[in-house]
Amino acid sequence: MKNLNRIKSLIAKKPKLAALVLVVLAALTFFLWRGFKKDKQPQFQTAKVERGMLVSSISASGQVLTVNIMGATTKASGIVKKVYVKDGDIVKAGDRILEVTLDLQGQQKNAQTYSSYLSAKNTLESAKATQYSLQADMFGKWDTFKELAEKDEYDTPEERALPEFHIPEKEWLATEAKYKNQQAVITQAQTGVNSAWLAYKLSSPVITAPTNGVVTSLMFVEGMTIGSLDTGASVSNQKVATIQTEGMPIVSVNLSEIDVSQIKLGQKATVTLDSITDKTFTGKVVGVDKIGTYMSGVTQYPAIIQLDSNTPQILPNMTVTANIIIAVKDNTLLVPSGAVIEQDGQTLVRLLEKNLQQTVPVETGLTSDMQTEIVAGLNEGDVVIIGLISDDVLETSPFSGTRGGMGGIMRGAPPH
Asked: Is residue 28's pLDDT more than 70?
């Protein structure tokens, strides 16, 4: 309190001296503040122009197709009596998968199909017997005509045009045509036998493997009902299991109308599946639908990609993402794609040299998801600006609040 009274007394007695002291203290404070404060500079995110390999690709999504599997189906109905295999077992065509104790409907269906099979066999045998008869008739007509043709009185064209020579010739040709036509009848009858046999197998109480492969998706155990137990209902094909055959998975992806023109057969692709996060598969384009489908205002063009490897983890209808490689270029100048600016019809890049910015036009080439090829306008080692991390370049004055530094934008307001 005594010191404060002394200061008040000094100011009252010598006001000019007090004012001078205050000015000196303010100036000293300002210069000390300036000495300790470092000028703030803009903070840029930058990258160097480097040489490297650029892989340009087109991304598309789709799903795994149902391929390399065949269903073991049946029209039998009843109760599963015996199961002979399990998932993962290797089977050959004709091996037993399971056996069914047929209900009345199943027995009736099985008897009907067996009867149809026997009838088809009888038709085939009858067609073969008819062919033998036609063959004998054809040979008889041929002998008659041959003997007539070898006689001396039928040497000239005029003599061979007589009815007694012409009619035996036509009779032989007619029997020959009937004989040849009967072969088509036999072929048709054989097809009927095959169809009847397959229908009989579908209604058989024993379900067998349709091909060589590995059993998957077996959905029945002993004691389960299969087919319809209602004798008034018809039994359609029911899948018992699937047989996985050898072969590589195939996926289908949808391309946009902008991308489809760049896709060609044989192009390599990398494929990822949402359900298999730790693996990337390779493959190649084996088909492109250039007609496409139009739906909800969007046209899509399916492309088929066959993978180079297989794994039990890949299942039908799984979601996939494919990157189809359309071009690869090595030893070329590359910059991050974020450094390239499109402005007023020009392609520009901002250079940073000695903390100074310079915008230069460039010519670009291939692009990928992350990088862009620079054909002209930049040199290897140039530093390009990708983005601005901080633009806080303002200085604070102890007297007037805030004032702009580099490129200064006034912020805040002077203190009151």
From this structure: no
In angstroms, the Cα distances linking 292 to 52, 253, 295, 324, 335 are 37, 12, 10, 18, 36
For residue 36, pLDDT over 60 is answered with no
**Domain identity same for 234 and 271:** no
Q: How far apart are CA 220 and CA 202, in angstroms?
A: 17
Give pLDDT, residue 311.
85
| Residues whose CB falls within 8 Å of the CB of residue 204, separated by 6 or more in sequence, listed in order | 74, 76, 110
Query: What does the alpha-carbon distance between residue 192 and residue 120 come to, in Å, rounded to a whole number?
Result: 6
Domain count, the chain: 3
Question: Quick check: 208 pLDDT over 80?
Answer: yes
pTM of the model as a whole: 0.59
pLDDT at 40: 54
Assess whether 228 and 148 both reside in one domain: yes
Give the per-residue pLDDT at 380. 87
CATH number, domain at 336?
2.40.30.170
Whether 280 is in a domain gets the answer yes
In this structure, of 8-12, 153-157, 199-203, the range with the lowest mean pLDDT score is 8-12
Q: Which domain holds residue 26?
A: 2-37
CATH of the domain at 168: 1.10.287
Q: Are residues 202 and 58 in the same domain?
A: no
Could you tell me if 54 and 328 are in contact, meaning their C-beta atoms sit under 8 angstroms apart?
yes
With CA atoms as reference, report the closest residue to 341 among 328, 357, 356.
357
Quote the CA–CA distance of 53 and 55 in Å, as a whole number: 7
